[in-house]
Amino acid sequence: MELNNLNKWLSLIANLGVLAGVFFLAFEIQQNTLYLRQGESNITFDQVSASRMMGMDEGMAELVVRATEDYASLSQADLFRYTQYLNQWMWTSYNIYQRELNGYLESAEWERSGKAIILGYINNSGGRASWRLMAPMFPEEFRALVKETLGK
C-alpha cells in the first residue's frame, strides 16, 4: 500500500512539473513574440529614417518639389533619381503592410504610416507616373491596396 501511495504522489509531482513547464514555455513564447515585434518595429523605423535622410539632401528635396510640380520637365537622370527615391518609400510602405499582415507590427500601423507614405509621396502627378513605372515590382495585393488608397 505504501508503494502505491508513493507512486501516486510521485505521479502528482511529475504532472505538476509538466504543467509548470508548459506555463513557463507559454511565458517564454510570449516574451519572444514581444521581442520580435520590437525588432520589426525598429527595422521599420530604420527604413523610414533612411528614406527621410535621402530627402534631407538639398538636391533631392529640390528634385522632389520639381517632380511634384512639373514632372514632364525632369531630365532622364532626374526621373531616375526621383523614381528611385519614391521606390524606397514604396518598399518601406510595403514592408509596413507585410509586417502588420504577419502580426509583427500593431494592427493600426498600416493605417497610421503606410497609407500616409502613399498619400504623401504618390498622390500627385509625378508620384502617380513614377508609381506606374514601379508598380509591376510589387505583388498584386499591394498594388490593389495602393490603388484603393489613391482612390482610383
Question: How would the blueprint of this fold be written?
Answer:
Elements: H1 2-56, H2 58-69, H3 76-101, H4 109-121, H5 125-134, H6 140-150
Task: Characterise this structure.
- The chain has helices at 2-56, 58-69, 76-101, 109-121, 125-134, 140-150.
- The mean pLDDT is 84.
- Helix 1 (2-56) runs antiparallel to helix 3 (76-101), helix 3 (76-101) packs antiparallel against helix 4 and helix 3 packs across helix 5.
- It is mostly helical and 152 residues long.
- The protein has one domain (40-150).
Number of strands: 0
Q: Tell me the series of helices and strands, N- to C-terminal.
A: HHHHHH
Choose one word for the global shape: rod-shaped
First-residue to last-residue Cα separation: 81 Å
Round the Cα radius of gyration to an integer and report it: 26 Å
User: Tally the helices: what do you get?
Assistant: 6
Overall pLDDT confidence: 84
Fraction of residues in H or I helices = over 70%
Count of spatially separate domains:
1
Tell me the structural class: mainly alpha
Short summary of the structure?
The chain is mostly helical and 152 residues long.
